[in-house]
């Protein structure tokens, strides 16, 4: 079954704990945490302090998406705060294998992510080393942007390589996911769908999650 990872970027931060419990009760599989530094992306969001604060609120895995320069400097802090998956951008890592190993050495699952304009081929050297591949379907920085359809061929390629190589990493997509684009992503081979505005901008989060899952499986 397709997994749904609500992005708390679109949650009400004044009541973040309640927002997380709401999506957990609504059937979410992961909690997606968007970390932005104002350098790699033009926005600043949350740091390890917030991950630490939300950890006791949920039993769901915390899927921490680092949109930051020099991720190596912060991996240990996010691991200590309770991240279960840490995903780093290929574009931000000069020594990608080293960064992936650093995540694993901290006892956390390792993911790698590419922006919409980065070719899928850039991931080929590390496919055997990661637990998760994240394909950005918008340019990172903000919630509520429009899905970029040209990313679908990259999801298809990565899914094909995974089966050819006999690997079992998860394929996640992030940005502009709604019930319609969920279907396109799932058909292309995505297993985990991140959705921010399509879930948190709806009053009934359970219904919003079910609509996305239904879209994916339709
Ligand atoms: C984009 C973030 C996403 C974002 C998705 O920079 O990485 O996780 O919150 O938001 P929606 O689902 O609204 O596009
Ligand atoms: Zn994200």
TrEMBL record:
The active site is at residues 34, 174. The keyword Membrane does not apply. Its cofactor is Zn(2+); Fe(2+); a divalent metal cation; Co(2+). GO terms for cellular component: cytoplasm. Keywords: Carbohydrate metabolism, Cobalt, Isomerase, Manganese, Metal-binding, Zinc. Substrate binds at residues 7, 65, 141-144, 174-176, 196-197. GO terms for biological process: pentose catabolic process; pentose-phosphate shunt. Its EC number is 5.1.3.1. Catalyzes the reversible epimerization of D-ribulose 5-phosphate to D-xylulose 5-phosphate. Belongs to the ribulose-phosphate 3-epimerase family. This is Ribulose-phosphate 3-epimerase. It comes from Oceanobacillus bengalensis.
